[in-house]
Amino acid sequence: MFSKQEATQLRKEFWTALGQYLSPIPSSEGEKINWINYKTGVKGIQFKMDADQKKATIGIFITQQDIQKHKELLSQLQGLKDIFHTTLKEQWTWLPQAYEEGKLITKVYTEKTGVNILKKEDWPGLISFFKPRIIAVDEFWNTVKYGIEGWQ
58-86: per-residue pLDDT in tens? Predict the structure, then answer.
């Protein structure tokens, strides 16, 4: 069992290690990128990686609170579903309507269970889970983003 402070420190160490591991890898457009705090350039679309004591999750989230814009972003993303799955070479879960803290969000994600961010021995598995997926999400995004950017 870890104290809250120890758990916070381990999480910080993991995300720092992952960021350092990914930092030499350029984006699919050949540019330097902050993989951990990926900026999509489109208001209301975020890429997130998360891990806790039970699982790791990576996904694309539509957080746009203007309902009409949210629906239009979702429609555009759904229209790119085949390109998305082809680029990622796997199927992800699509939740068009989810609520977090009372706010509508759309989640397109995948997860790995049975990993614990607080166990350093699980870190290689977490890195192996996140690395190819965030790189593939970047490749997908750089292929399609120019058709979506009008929603900034």
Answer: 999 999 989 999 999 999 999 999 999 99
What topology is assigned to 4-151 in CATH?
Answer: Yope Regulator; Chain: A, (3.30.1460)
CA-based nearest residue to 15, from 36, 46, 44, 33:
36
Residues 88-132 have pLDDT tens digits of 999 999 999 998 888 999 999 999 999 999 999 999 999 999 999
- Residue 59 near residue 108 (C-beta atoms within 8 A): yes
Q: How far is CA 136 from CA 4, 6, 33, 37, 83, in A?
A: 34, 32, 14, 16, 11
Confidence of residue 152 (pLDDT cuts 50, 70, 90): very low
Distance CA 9, CA 11 (A): 5
